[in-house]
């Protein structure tokens, strides 16, 4: 039955291109969702879309505690971005017209996650021919990327169906030998220092939000974080002020905090909140008048967590990779699996296979060579898990 992945390789590639060319910015996934829903209906599955737009395909005679196979619908690109796929030999519009190399397909989103979605559909078609099929359901999620903040996966794991799942596999990375069993948690804040403003000369000496922000940012830069568990912070956006000769009414920055360890993320979070307050106090201590309290808005939160290396799901992944002569590696990433792990459902992210790179940029490309091996890996995992 695994032969289908090779004999259907051209059809799989054409479907991947079709999916890629249906634009699906985060929050605007409905056209692509409709395509995926129709493909799953044609397999005889019971398909519906939930309130947020996730496409969910179940069996009429499904078993309890399903195994969930998933991929996300959305891409990081806006609606203005062309998503036409450039084929081998064609002039590449994403690289100043230079010819696309043999076997490569170039387009924003061609791998992340058109390759994940087509893998899910191809595996569903193959599994439907087996008696184990009734143990597996399929979910194409909305809002995985950036601003989406795992919106679709979170919603799914708030439902009875999601919480009843015994395992969750999302197809969402490029490394054929890797199992993502560790979800990197992240928190994002928009920090606003504010004042009543004023003239740079006439009101000199009043609280200046730009100095408060600078004091805080400088202290942030001094935070020491462990290499393991890997932890990071970033000031990504700094904005504010009206003109050169006015005290700014507002100075703001967006901060991104990440860690492989939920405990580390909590302690980094505490340090950062204290530093934000200290930046304010520092400036208060230097000036008189004009200050307003800083505002901290949370603009993102992804729960972190780990599916243990000795869990049945990770062990099934290892066996499947070894059966395909790949040496398993456990790695950390931030995917829909984070939301599953936070809900207590064992979860991993597996590879869409082939070769690919430059995800989240317009120079993204995909080469389907050996893709079938990664599709077999995931199918083996599902068959293995369905038996237990
Ligand atoms: Zn992705």
Quickly describe the structure.
With 388 residues, the chain is α+β, with helices and mostly antiparallel strands.
The tally of beta strands, per DSSP, is: 18
- Helix content estimate: 25-40%
Q: How would you spell out the order of helices and strands?
A: HHHEEEEHEHHEEEEHEEEHEEHEHEEEH
Strand order in space, largest sheet: 1-2-5-3-6-16
First-last Cα distance = 21 Å
CATH architecture of the largest domain: 3-Layer(aba) Sandwich
The count of helical stretches stands at: 11
In CATH, the topology of the largest domain is named Aminopeptidase
**Mean pLDDT figure:** 96
Low confidence ranges: none
The share of residues in extended strands comes to 25-35%
What small molecules does this complex bind? zinc ion
Radius of gyration: 24 Å
Count of spatially separate domains: 2
CATH class identity of the largest domain: Alpha Beta
Q: Please name the fourth-level CATH homologous superfamily of the largest domain.
A: Zn peptidases
- Biggest sheet: strands, sense, closure? 6 strands, mixed
Structural class: alpha+beta
Instruction: Tell me the overall shape.
Output: elongated
What does this structure look like?
The protein is of the alpha+beta class and 388 residues long. The chain has two domains: 3-183 and 304-387, Aminopeptidase; 190-302, Alpha-Beta Plaits (2-Layer Sandwich). Helices cover 32% and strands 26% of the residues. It has helices spanning 3-7, 9-20, 30-41, 114-127, 151-156, 160-163, 209-221, 262-286, 312-323, 337-342, 371-387, and strands at 46-49, 55-58, 67-72, 105-106, 136-141, 167-173, 178-183, 185-195, 198-199, 231-240, 246-247, 250-259, 291-302, 305-306, 329-333, 347-351, 355-357, 365-367. Strands 1-2-5-3-6-16 form a six-stranded mixed sheet. Helix 2 crosses helix 4 (114-127) and helix 4 crosses helix 11. The mean pLDDT is 96. Bound molecules: zinc ion. Zinc ion binds at residues 72, 112-113, 144, 172.
